[in-house]
Amino acid sequence: MSAGIIVTGTDTGVGKTVFAAALAGARGASYWKPVQCGLDGGGDVEAVRRLSGLPPGRILPEIYRFRTAASPHRAAELDGIEIDLDRLTPPDNGDHGVRRSGFDTASRPLVVEGAGGLMVPLTRTVLQIDLFARWRLPVVLVARTALGTINHSLLSIEALKRRGIPLIGLAFVGDENKDSERTICEIGGARRLGRLPRLAILDQSSLAAAFAAHFRVEDFA
pLDDT-based confidence at 180, cuts 50/70/90? Predict the structure, then answer.
């Protein structure tokens, strides 16, 4: 399995795609979102392509693309598809099938973005966090700084710990909230990696500059 990092969120819409794009760009990584629900605007792969600066060969195709912006289990049902969990395996560094298809995963870190939050169902019997537990890759938890983040974040940290999934730390997104950020990390026993602020103009240049100013890439090694 490729040396990689999972980027997941405490909820939908917390900014994990933007953060994943910044992290992948800063690390010179490959990016992979195995399950995409909702295709408006080209989906999250298109956003990462626009924001990360990664060449096309380092943005891997999704395994499943569903039309409806819904939980994966429901989006799959609406499209008449059953998700096969055995297909959702991060590529090895030496995955020649991927390289032959024009995608470059060799000797590169991998940033894997989950769909929604940790407890989102992939099927009627398997949650996304169950898949992460199978992979055994370390996780970066992306959390908002707005009201409600303490509860959502601590519940997510607790769920990761119960399944023995390694947590690198928390990446906050939004306006500064020192007390909430400190409280979450102290009570959850988790590392604060940094905070990605709101950007007046969100593009590749501004995102890369914001990541460099607020995070240390060596913390994700």
Answer: very high
24-56 residue pLDDT tens: 999 999 999 999 999 988 889 999 999 999 999
Rounded Cα–Cα distance for residues 93 and 140 (Å): 21
Q: Which residues pair with 112 in a beta bridge?
A: 6, 32
- Positive or negative, the CA dihedral 68, 152, 206, 25 is negative
Name residue, tokens 């969100």.
202
For 8, 45, 112, 138, 173, the CA distances from 214, given in Å and listed in that order, are: 19, 24, 21, 21, 11
Task: Respond yes or no: is residue 178 known to be catalytic.
Answer: no
- Work out the burial of residue 211: count CB atoms within 10 Å of its CB; fewer than 13 is exposed, 13-18 middle, 19 or more buried: buried
Under 8 Å between Cβ of 37 and 75: yes
What pTM was estimated for this model as a whole? Answer: 0.92
Nearest Cα to Cα of residue 83 among 57, 65, 59, 103: 65
Active-site position among 16, 33, 161, 178: 33
